[in-house]
TrEMBL record:
InterPro entries: At4g02000-like (IPR040256), Zn_knuckle_CX2CX4HX4C (IPR025836). This is Zinc knuckle CX2CX4HX4C domain-containing protein. Coiled coil: none annotated. Residues 190-237 form the Zinc knuckle CX2CX4HX4C domain. PANTHER family: GLYCINE-RICH CELL WALL STRUCTURAL PROTEIN 1.8-LIKE, OS09G0268800 PROTEIN. It comes from Cannabis sativa (Hemp). Pfam families: zf-CCHC_4. It comes from the Eukaryota.
Amino acid sequence: MDAFMTLNLDWWGQAAALCGPWQSQHLRGFFPVAASLLEEELDSGLFCVFGGVGKVVAPMVVEEPTVVDFAAKVWKKHVSVLAMVDDSKTSNVFRFEFDSAEDRNWALLNGPCCIRGYTLVLQAWTPATDGSVVFHLMRVWIKLHHLPHEYFSISNGNLLGGLVGKVVNVDLEEDKPVLWDDFLHVQVDIDLNNPLVSGFFFDLVAGVKKWIQVKYDKIGIFYYFCGRLGHQRRGCSLSSPVTVANIDGTLFPMFDPWLSTSSAYRDVFSGPKPFGSRSILDVAQRKSTGDARLSPEAMT
């Protein structure tokens, strides 16, 4: 078995550029795993308090008592919580002080978490931190489903995980296939400003296209039209869901519960009923413009 088999990918890279055509890449070789910034932070010994700072990615104001209640009931640890209120009072950023470095590190390593269903992004904090804390990235484990075992490798885990975010770790013992799951487990840093990546097609050796479904561990609420964490209909520029066509040209919504590892849906094509006859015209239009995968709705 060639663990470093070439993949010919039709991929959906940055979802913010959905108005562009699907692209094809022929990639091969080893992609080194990115260093874990979290491990560097935890090993540096620079923190003089056992602190963290977190943001609840939600469209409404989350009150401090709600976060205090979460820390006590979910983390089950003694944690002091202080809201870091800005001028608009809508930042949903909180400072956490733990009793020990062990407790703080446990919370960092076991994220993300959800408060009232919305994602809490936590990062280390020190008193030396100047100005407002900016949250761009969230570290999360993803599961890549429908990838045949003959394509399981660290290299291909980096390749496919890199289409979702910055790869931190590929959880795979290449020399022990008997231990492999039905999915490839990859840890990535994803950009909170971008929509979630739902999946992508790749070509088998025989030329048959295969959909790789991305599922996220511990993911919070996102809007099913645009796939952005913390979004809702109000404030979203899209008037209809982003869609993806199966190999028969039938459109399905790109974002829905199947993005969570807790969902019983296998993938995007086994979810709710597709869009029906409207898809025939849409697919014909996309083929005429060279975009045979995504519907014309653009993401802004």
